[in-house]
Amino acid sequence: EDQVTQSPEALRLQEGESSSLNCSYTVSGLRGLFWYRQDPGKGPEFLFTLYSAGEEKEKERLKATLTKKESFLHITAPKPEDSATYLCAVQKETSGSRLTFGEGTQLTVNP
Amino acid sequence: DTAVSQTPKYLVTQMGNDKSIKCEQNLGHDTMYWYKQDSKKFLKIMFSYNNKELIINETVPNRFSPKSPDKAHLNLHINSLELGDSAVYFCASSQDVLRTYGYTFGSGTRLTVV
Fold first, then answer.
1. More confident residue, B39 or A54
2. Structure confidence by residue, pLDDT tens digits, A90-109
3. Half-sphere exposure (CA, 13 Å, Cβ side) for A17?
4. Could you tell me if A44 lies within 8 Å of chain B, comparing CB atoms?
5. In chain B, which residue's Cα lies nearest the Cα of A86?
6. Lower CB density within 10 Å: C or N end of chain B?
């Protein structure tokens, strides 16, 4: 059965304290792995898509990487405005446009 | 201009009632979705339409019925609401069934059944 597991469930950082969020997946035939950011009371906002092991994408203080079993979202020198829930999702080659989501990591960055 | 808009944003209703949630996208996308997010933030797909045709129908009670009058609109009707239906329902769209990068989500409808 396809599984997407994110860790930790919650993470508290001080402003400027870099860290990583993890997304482990067991999916046969991965077509793509997606990272989203979700703020309270809002819908998920697309951040990155990764398609193959070794691929990396960057946006401001965020960098996403992909291996054959997991993806990391590295946050460098985070700011309070980076506080949000970060969601990981996978798309299988055989599942059309369906995304399977993990349960998210709630990130809080204290000033 | 909101890309994917849902109405209403909040819905409080009694058990047994019937309610609808509406969704519209102005992105010109072919594919639209309904996802349910439970209290633990877990997002799960319910339905998907591509150009008005139902293409994904997950294991969802028959009380839930989607309708797509055209490719820019996807509505969700729920009959005989139950307490367990309380959740946040998100509408989303993607360019088509293959180009799903950057699904665009609406801001959600928080349904509370009392």
1. A54
2. 999 888 888 999 999 999 99
3. 12
4. yes
5. B41
6. N
